[in-house]
Amino acid sequence: MTHKYISPETNEKLYFDEANNCLKSQDGQESFAIKEGVPYFSDVSSFGEKETQRVFGAEWETFTEYDADNLEKMSYGMENFYTDKTVLEIGCGSGRHSRRLVNKFNAKHVEAIDLSDAVIVAKELNKGIDNINVANANVFELPFEDETFDIGFSLGVLMHTTNPKEAFNSMCKKVKKGGSAVIWVYAKTPRKYFMEFFRFFTKNSPTIIQKIIASLLSFLLWPLVLLSKKFGISLSNHFKEYAKYDYYVYKTDMYDRISAPLIAFFSEKEIQNWFEDEGFEEIEVTTYGDFFVRGVGKSKE
Ligand SMILES: C[S@@+](CC[C@H](N)C(=O)[O-])C[C@H]1O[C@@H](n2cnc3c(N)ncnc32)[C@H](O)[C@@H]1O
Fold it and tell me: How much is the average pLDDT of 253-279?
């Protein structure tokens, strides 16, 4: 079972041109390159999106061992939600959730997209899993027909786009009537703004500087995580949460926090409004610690 790609510009169906290793429209006017088995649809022009490609491409190409099980931890009450469903995953990064959606949550099929070259890593790390497809695409210009997926899914992504609510709307357009959407975005809490101080100085730095600063900060703060891990003494929720993970996860997330070009934070009320404005029903908005707001809802039949 696979979703046929369409041109995000003209909505025309595309076919595989084996001789030129690309996807082409019937009239041959449009053509999309395939790199290392991954079709490339994204065509970005804004500085924010170009920086997003640079930073997240570097993150997932560097930290390929990152495999934190956030999805399991953050899927409370949703154990059977994905069973036998087709899922559109927005912002797959290195594809750790795509893999879990299929292997642990029994999704029927996952079409994963990301704006950056993380897609090459996602393709490689998920090779051999036939029911995962990966493409390079922008959430605002998705290469799929409207109303074709059972579930629109996005964990930790929409707040990194140029317009998070529009990104959500764009994802929801691809969900069938009666299908569902599930998202996690950063929660609006005072603690989150602390990192924003660092990010102001580091977000435009060269990748090598960002990596050095992330290594330095995680090295300096790791003893406080250990204090929580070994003795249960937590100076903040941040250290308590990372006590569940190893140093590699901490360092990767530190790089993510200080280098992401675009970040926004949301209240539960804002996310509730997103789902209501989409006309969804059975909306449930909850929080995961003071880290994420999770929204789940069902599109009207
Ligand atoms: C913090 S990472 C999260 C990756 C993955 N969801 C995870 O939790 O491991 C955010 C991802 O969103 C992607 N992203 C940002 N803006 C995007 C856009 N406009 N369209 C598609 N993906 C985007 C980035 O390239 C990046 O890989």
Answer: 96
